[in-house]
Fold PTS ascorbate transporter subunit IIB.
Amino acid sequence: MAKTVNILFVCGAGLGSSFAAQMAAEDVLNRHHINAKLDHVDISTAASVSPDIIITAQNFEKQFAQFEIDEEKTSVIFLKNIVSSKEIEEKLLPVLKERNFI
């Protein structure tokens, strides 16, 4: 059985857009039969946790640049449209393959 990937969705307040992105990603993960533990938080909390993958909006790229994220442990994916299943699929699947989750 494949290992479970821990994915964190991040937005400014940790409520609206991160949850919408989580729901869009859930569709993609289910379609590809990928086991995942999903959660959503605000950007200040994101720096203190170490998921396998962080998914967030492109406009948070500057804030993430200031965080010390161990890129060997955590991949960060920036999305133009955080509710686009197509964009999530295009950006997430290669990272999941590269990190041996699929």
Notes: The radius of gyration is 12 Å. The chain has four helices and four strands. The chain has a mean pLDDT of 92. The domain at 5-99 is CATH 3.40.50.2300 (Rossmann fold).
